[in-house]
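Session log. Operator J.P. requested a structure for one protein chain; no other inputs attached. Running the standard single-chain path with C-alpha cell output.
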Amino acid sequence: MRPLTADSLRGVWATLLLPLDADDSIDFARLSAQADVLSRSEVAGLYAHGTAGEFQTLTEDEFDRINDVLAATGKPFQIGASHPSAQVQLSRVERAAKLAPGAIQLIVPDWLPLNPGELLDFLRRVAEMAGDVPLVLYNPPHAKTTVAPRQLAELAAAVPSLIGLKTAGGDKTWFDETVRSGLAIFVPGHFLASMSLLGAHGSYSNVAALSPDGAVATAQDLDVERRIAEFFAAHVAPLQKAGLSNPALDKFLAAVGDWADVGTRVRWPMQAATAEQVAAARPAARSLLPELF
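Structure written below.
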C-alpha cells in the first residue's frame, strides 16, 4: 500500500488477535476468518504484533505467517516489528518492509533503557532498513525508555520517516508539547473522544476489540466514552486487579463483543479470563453500550 504520512495516519485501527489452540499453537484458519471480518469493517486499517497480539511470544515463522494473512486482507495495514531485542526487531523490519505496509510499528529495545544517543542510533538504523516504509513508535507507560515530548520533537526532526506515536496520552500540557513534534498521536480507544479534543489523531483501539464498527461509529462520542469507563470499571478493572495481562483483557473484550471466534486463551504463562466472566459481562455491555452493537 502507499506509505502513510503524519498527516494521513488517522482514525480507528484494529488489531489481529491470536486464536490459540489448547497447545498454544495459532489456529490460522480462525485467524484468517477474523481478518476477513475486520477487512469488511469500517475501521481505517488493521495492524498486527502490538501488545494485544502477544508479539513477544511469536516465533519468526509465526510472525511471517501472520503478516501474510494481514497483507492479504486488502485493507490498509501496519506491521508491528516490535521485540525486546534490537537485533530481532531489525530482522523483522527487513522482512516486514518487503510487504509494503503503510507503516511499521516499533518499541524501544526493552531489557535495559537506552540513553538519548542510543535511541537515536536505533531509530536511524531501523529507518534505513525500512527504506520507504515509515515508522510509528510505540511508547507505553511500562516502557523501560520513556520518550518525553521534547525528545520526540528531536527524534522526528532527525528521523524524517518517523511519522507517528502510539502512547497512553496525557493532559493538555502534555498534548500541547507533543503536537509540536508533528507526529500523528494515537491513544487508547477508551480515551479517544476526550483526547481528540486535546490533539490526538486516532487510536490503535482496544474498543475495536469489543466492537470494530462500534468503535468507529462512537469514536468522538463523549457520552459513550463515559459509559465505556463505567463498563471497564465494572468488568475490566477487576480482571486487571487480579493480574490479567493486557492481551488477556483485549481477548476478553473480543469474547464479550463476540464478532469473531478469537477465544480468551493467551500464551503460557499468561492467564486468561474465564467463560463465566465473559458471560457476566456480555449483557452488561449491550445494555450500557447499545451504540457499539
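Operator note: The domain at 11-219 is CATH 3.20.20.70 (TIM Barrel).
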